[in-house]
Every structure is written in structure tokens, then in C-alpha cells.
Design a protein that fits this description.
Layout (H helix, E strand, L loop, with lengths): L6 E5 L4 H12 L3 E6 L2 H13 L3 E6 L5 H15 L4 E4 L16 H28 L3 E6 L13 H20 L5 E8 L8 H4 L2 H8 L10 H12 L10 E4 L12
Parallel strand pairs: 1-2, 1-4, 2-3, 4-5, 5-6, 6-7
The protein binds nicotinamide-adenine-dinucleotide (NAD).
Length: 257
């Protein structure tokens, strides 16, 4: 098993990429702290892990609130004695997030608070726990939009993910000699509830699909597999990377018909 004797905390583990990762990490032997603001989603992930014979706890926390993040990290150490893997994955994509010209300040603040400050808080309170356990792996979920621009704007989301990418790089360098690795996981579009509203509209769906070389969206388990690699010791020399799992979007100029 690839995560035997590891304790992993995953935020946003009540749905999508986070849930698939929690299930996979548990199957690979990790003790998982399932963290989410959505209690129903988090508890569902927990019961799926337990039904499969895995070990996990659920901690309700809003990643944009320092005290709640701190408590979630403390729960990992209290319950399992340590923290080895920190997967800062929770994020939102607001339906009213649009062009810089018409995105309201409230949408900007909400998005930055969850997507960017949430990762900052996870690292702020999680890194001391990783150091106490002798080091570990940090995976911060950014996105391919951190490295590409689009004429289908989502300005707050894009800015938040750019911030996650550069923050992760700096953390990777600062803590490298203390046995901590940090990588920015950058998925292409993934079929999860995050994109439900967008993908339900055939025109908006097709507008994106045409730019994805394999001609389909990713599925959450495909991203969870990349997270597993980054979490495990198999990626021991992977640090500070822009870890693209995008089906080749960022390599493409014109896609095949
Ligand atoms: P999702 O909506 O299925 O899951 C996100 C989870 O985060 C939900 O369970 C939600 O309750 C939780 N969450 C939201 N706000 C929170 C908060 N303040 N505190 C704690 N938990 C909170 O979405 P997903 O597609 O699995 O997205 C996971 C991550 O991947 C996000 O950071 C997202 O930006 C990123 N991402 C997604 C895609 C995609 O196309 N789906 C592409 C690139 C990056």
C-alpha cells in the first residue's frame, strides 16, 4: 500500500476530487481526516471509507476561517498522533464570477477567501504539524487556469489559482531542507459538481470541450491518482512543481477534430 502509516488531511473531501482522493488514500492505507464545510457531503465520504474498511474521521471546517483550520489540524494530531500529508483542495467556482468589468467585489472576496486564503491557512497551521512529524507532502489544488488565459472569463477564480500556484512554489523552496515537499496540482476541467451549472449548458460545455485534446472532461479519479502520487514517497524528488493533469490542454495550439 502506497500510503501505509501516513495520516492525510484533505479539505473539500465531501465532494468531487477531494472525495475521490479521500477514498483512494484510505484504500492505500492512509488514516484520513475528511475536512469539509458541507457536513452531509463530508459524512457521506466518511461512511464510504468506513464501508470499504478504511480509517477516517470527519471534521467540519470552513477553510477561510483560521480557528476552524487550526482545529482541523489539531484533530488530525489528537486522533492519529501526527500529520504526513496535507491536501489543500477545497475551492469554489461562483456562477457570478465573470469578466473583471462585471464581477462584484463580494464575489471576488468570497472566492479569494476560500480558494487562496484557505490554502494559506491550511499551510500556516498545517506546516508546523508536518514539521513535528519529521516532514511531509503538501498538495495545493490550483488549476490549469493558473497558467493560461481564457476568453470565457472567471476573473476571481483565475486570480485565486494563480496565487495558489505561486504561493506553493515559495513554500516548496522555503521548507525543502526540512523534508517538506509542496506541489501545485493543476487539473484541467473535471466532471464534478463544481462545474455542474456550466456543463449543463450545451453551448458553454462545447465551447470548452473543443480545447481539450482528448475531447472529453477529466473524471475525478484521474485527478485523485495524481494526488496519490504526490502524496506518496514515490514522488520524493517532485517539489515546487506545476503539476498539470490537463489532458494536454496547455500543450495544444489546435486540437484534433
Ligand atoms: P466540488 O464542488 O465537487 O468539491 C469542492 C468541495 O469543497 C465541496 O465539498 C465543498 O463543500 C467544499 N468547500 C467549498 N467551500 C469550502 C470551505 N469554505 N471550507 C471547506 N470546504 C469547502 O469541486 P471539485 O471539482 O472537486 O474541486 C476541488 C478543487 O479542484 C477546487 O479547488 C477546484 O477549484 C479545483 N479544480 C477543479 C476543476 C474542475 O474542473 N472541477 C478544475 C481545476 C481545479
Amino acid at each position: 500500500m502506497r500510503l501505509q502509516n501516513k495520516v492525510a488531511l484533505i479539505t473539500g473531501a465531501g465532494s468531487g476530487i477531494g472525495r475521490e482522493s479521500a477514498l483512494l488514500f484510505a484504500r492505500e492505507g492512509a488514516q484520513v481526516v475528511v475536512c469539509d464545510l458541507n457536513e452531509a457531503g463530508g459524512k457521506e465520504t466518511l461512511s464510504q471509507i468506513e464501508a470499504a474498511g478504511g480509517q477516517a474521521i470527519f471534521v467540519k471546517a470552513d477553510v477561510s476561517k483560521g480557528a476552524e483550520v487550526k482545529a482541523a489540524i489539531a484533530a488530525a494530531e489528537t486522533t492519529y498522533g501526527k500529520l504526513n500529508v496535507l491536501f489543500n483542495n477545497a475551492g469554489i467556482f461562483h456562477g457570478a464570477d465573470n469578466s473583471v468589468l462585471d464581477t462584484e467585489e463580494e464575489i471576488w472576496d468570497l472566492t479569494i477567501n476560500i480558494n487562496l486564503k484557505g490554502v494559506f491557512l491550511g499551510c500556516k497551521y498545517g506546516i508546523p504539524a508536518l514539521l513535528r512529524s519529521g516532514g511531509g507532502s503538501i498538495i495545493n489544488t490550483a488549476s490549469f487556469v493558473a497558467v493560461m488565459g481564457a476568453a470565457t472569463p472567471q476573473i476571481a477564480y483565475t486570480a485565486s489559482k494563480g496565487g495558489v500556484l505561486s504561493m506553493t512554489r515559495e513554500i516548496a523552496i522555503e521548507f525543502a531542507r526540512q523534508n517538506i515537499r509542496a506541489n501545485a496540482l493543476c487539473p484541467g476541467p473535471v466532471q464534478t459538481p463544481l462545474l455542474d451549472e456550466l456543463l449543463a449548458d450545451p453551448a458553454r460545455r462545447q465551447r470548452r470541450l473543443v480545447h481539450i485534446p482528448p475531447g472529453r472532461f477529466a473524471q475525478a479519479p484521474e485527478i485523485a491518482n495524481a494526488a496519490l502520487f504526490l502524496a506518496s514517497d514515490e514522488s520524493s524528488f517532485v517539489n515546487g512543481s506545476t503539476f498539470l493533469v490537463d489532458g494536454g490542454i496547455t500543450a495544444a495550439y489546435v486540437t484534433a477534430e
